[in-house]
Write a structure and sequence with these properties.
heterodimer; A: alpha/beta; TIM Barrel; eight-stranded parallel β-barrel; two-stranded antiparallel ribbon; 9 helices; 42% helix; B: mainly alpha; 2 domains; 6 strands
Chain lengths: 291, 265
């Protein structure tokens, strides 16, 4: 299964939002790439395509899907796959990624990334769906580890093992969302710094960094909510550093979907990620020189 | 895992959490499941708030959220493309007893929906002037011709002053908006042409005859039939005014000398 377009530079990227279109075109910021939510661009014409076309001329792009429902019980939506295919043909992204989650059932789209049980039955179905997506789109896709709040009685794999099995069976790559790994581990009463040590990460092609909050509905017991509405917190940066130590430099996206700050605030977070990536490279070089 | 049970419980806050879940420690299953219940409803309400900002502003956040929640439960989305979610919200408002005190609300919602549809409509270049010169020089041929309008073009009609109400909300600051709203007589019917220009949807006020003319063209009628439709509203209808407006707005993307002819792009 081929990768797409040009390889993504080992730099930081920013989630592209319409609020930033004009500033990006006017100032041409020094950033590695942009990422879009595919579903936001599944429209016929108008300003979204106009600006995305101009930005794509200058920057590499990754496409991130939220609506394929790969973990769902039902067959994939072929119309949706076709719309994805035309976006991919038009914009030639470096990667297309989706979530290990479901969002559609019995014709209703829930607009949330809902959890799956880590059972053999789910594994079989998820792999079948990924095979189908990769065949339809004719490319290797990336699967993202989810932010979870729930576990299922019939799960018989650890999340990392489940993802590794998916990679082994389908040949897809992984999008390691550091914030999701942190949120899920804490929510399941696990230490994220130990969880990452147990994961096989060699298939990771891209990383995500984002902010989360403590459950605003009830903060008495610590349930972390992946809201993409706040800056990345220090422990997530530390987990990112650990991931960089294990993986070396990996293209990393700063995700921000709510309470959008100024573009320069996001640039600062992206620069921090690039600084850490550079530091990772130096320590790797030092390590190999001394070994 | 039981997807149907999970899906049903998501949209019914009164139902118990799905049985197949596991609790080890920390927050109980009800609180954990509530995260997804909240994500579903809150994110869909947010999608409606993005599409209907003036409706939101007119009724205030608490009222809007209740209205949106009811709409979502009765008409949940079927597509992950969120700009497609919100179709039918105007009819829902029109039939909602809680909105009966705000008779123009449904029309404002319809205007906001039509603007979103227009904003994302397909791109198409305007017709080249050279292609229409022949028609413009031959009045008989011109009247028999049919004209294709840009995909973002439409006519909006309201029995209330929905356009003035919407326009007032485009001003900066509460004082300016309130001042503009104070001068609106909501009982005056309004019509407008809308289409995309320079990546933004513009509204141009029309009279009833002009709106009948544009609607007839949108329906695929010849210029002659469109003029008749306009004159049935007002016999003093002036073709030159509206036709030059449409030309100026680059609203025409094709024309054909015959009713069933092939459009010249």
């Amino acid at each position: 299964m081929p990768d797409l377009a040009l390889p993504l530079p080992k730099r930081a990227g920013i989630g592209l939002k319409p609020n930033y279109f004009k500033e990006i075109i006017a100032t041409q910021p020094d950033i590695g790439f942009f990422e879009i939510h595919a579903e936001n661009y599944m429209v016929a014409g108008g300003p979204f395509h106009h600006y995305l076309g101009l930005i794509r001329e200058r920057y590499p792009l990754t496409l991130h899907g939220v609506g394929l429902s790969i973990g769902g019980a039902e067959d994939l939506d072929v119309k949706h796959l076709d719309r994805l295919l035309s976006l991919i043909d038009r914009y030639q992204p470096s990667f297309f990624s989706e979530h290990l989650a479901w969002s559609r059932h019995a014709g209703i789209y829930f607009n949330d990334l809902l959890p799956v049980s880590y059972s053999d039955e789910t594994l079989h179905r998820v792999c079948k769906h990924i095979d189908c997506v990769q065949e339809h789109l004719k490319l290797k896709i990336l699967i993202e580890n989810p932010a979870t709040y729930l576990e299922f009685q019939d799960s018989c794999y650890e999340e990392g093992d489940f993802l590794n099995e998916i990679v082994k069976r389908t040949g897809c790559g992984l999008l390691l969302d550091i914030n999701n790994l942190y949120v899920s581990s804490v929510n399941q009463g696990r230490d994220p710094f130990k969880v990452i040590e147990t994961m096989t990460l060699r298939s990771v092609c891209q990383m995500h960094l984002a902010g989360h909050v403590i459950d605003p509905i009830d903060s008495s017991e610590c349930l972390l909510i992946d809201n993409h509405g706040t800056p990345v917190i220090d422990p997530v940066w530390q987990l990112y550093e650990l991931a960089l130590e294990k993986l070396g430099q990996i293209p990393t996206l700063l995700e921000r979907d709510h309470d959008l700050p100024s573009f320069s605030d996001l640039m600062q977070e992206a620069q921090k990620a690039e600084h850490l990536m550079g530091a990772g490279q130096i320590s790797t070089l030092t390590m190999s020189a001394s070994s | 895992m039981m997807y149907q049970e999970f899906a049903t419980a998501l949209l019914d806050p009164g139902s118990s959490v799905p049985k197949n879940l596991l609790w080890r420690s920390g927050p109980d299953l009800h609180k954990r499941f509530a995260v997804h219940r909240n994500n579903v409803i809150a994110s869909l309400i947010e999608a409606l708030e993005d599409t209907f900002p003036v409706v939101l502003s007119l009724v205030g956040e608490p009222f809007f959220r209740n209205l949106a929640r009811e709409f979502i439960l009765q008409h949940p989305p079927h597509s992950p493309v969120m700009v497609e979610f919100g179709e039918g919200f105007d009819s829902f408002i029109q039939n909602a007893p809680s909105c009966s005190q705000v008779p123009y609300l449904s029309d404002v919602a319809r205007l906001e929906w039509q603007r979103v549809v227009s904003l994302h409509a397909a791109d198409q270049p305007p017709i080249a002037q050279t292609h229409i010169n022949d028609l413009l020089n031959d009045p008989n041929k011109l009247m028999q011709s049919t004209w294709k309008l840009h995909p973002s073009t439409g006519v909006f009609r309201s029995c209330f002053s929905a356009i003035s109400i919407w326009s007032a909300h485009q001003l900066e600051g509460t004082t300016q908006i309130e001042k503009a709203l104070a001068s609106v007589d909501i009982t005056i019917p309004e019509c407008a042409l809308f289409l995309r220009q320079d990546l933004e949807v513009i509204l141009v006020n029309l009279n009833m005859a002009e709106s009948a003319f544009v609607q007839a063209l949108l329906d695929g009628n010849s210029l002659e039939v469109a003029v008749e439709a306009a004159q049935s509203q007002n016999d003093k209808f002036e073709l030159a005014l509206i036709f030059s407006l449409l030309l100026k707005c680059k609203a025409f993307v094709g024309c054909s000398p015959h009713l069933t002819g092939v459009f010249t792009q």
